[in-house]
Amino acid sequence: MSAPAISTPGVLQRLARNRVALVACAALALVTMAAMLGPALMPQGAGGVTGAQFSPPSARHFFGTDLNGRDVLFRVLEGARISLLVGISGALISFFIGTAYGLIAGYAGGRLDSAMMRAVEILYSIPRLIIILIFINAFDTHFQKWLATHHFARLIGYSRIAILVASLGLIEWLTMARIVRGQVLALKSLQFVAAARSLGQSHAKIILRHLLPNLVGIVVIYLTLTIPAVILDESFLSFLGLGIQAPQASWGSLLSDGASVINPIRSYWWLLVFPALVMSSTLLALNFLGDALRDALDPRARK
Description:
Strand content: under 5%
Radius of gyration: 23 Å
CATH class: Mainly Alpha
CATH superfamily: MetI-like
């Protein structure tokens, strides 16, 4: 005996009937493909320093150029690579840690559950910015030295990105753990779990074969909502100069560059508008997709 399983064809059919979900998927696919292929398809030297400083949007430079004459569209697409990489990787780390932690806490119950959730509450009380700064200051130099001594010198410039991914993933899992733990507490009191126990199935089998499949819906929904949260955190840090460093670019660092040249005398508006437009459109699409998945996986909608 087991709980009703989620029908993948049924979920896809409900998503296909949701126009907002289709638009969100199309927008995300467009941004992803543009980030992956766009820089390679643009004219050679588009991302290099030129003499065309602060050129407004034109047929040659659709998003204009920046202080160093670099094509802003090229920079936005390069920034999309890093921002999406950080967002997806950080969300996946939080997905695995939060799901495992919540499963163990909810299934074990009792004192272990209480101790584990008190630990989560303590971590919640620590400001995120402090944790990330500690990670960067404590591990960035050592990680760069490790890369240099192990013949990975080419990756030294990406050390801060790796630390950002790890630190953001280790922060965002807290909410995931609480959500999963609450679902497990509700599921383990149902008859199909009691039947599995009476049949002598091990705790690992009950967790992996009965509880985890019934958590897929809520976990996937929250995963799609965690990605924009991680992207926003990375963008905020890069905006403050604590995240991605030049010459690398992310949406946050591009917004910081754009904000630095906004003044009452002359405003180079395209440096701020276009990165903000692309970033906000992507985040909105991710949030709309999460809402559509929640509606598609809602048991009350399965008719």
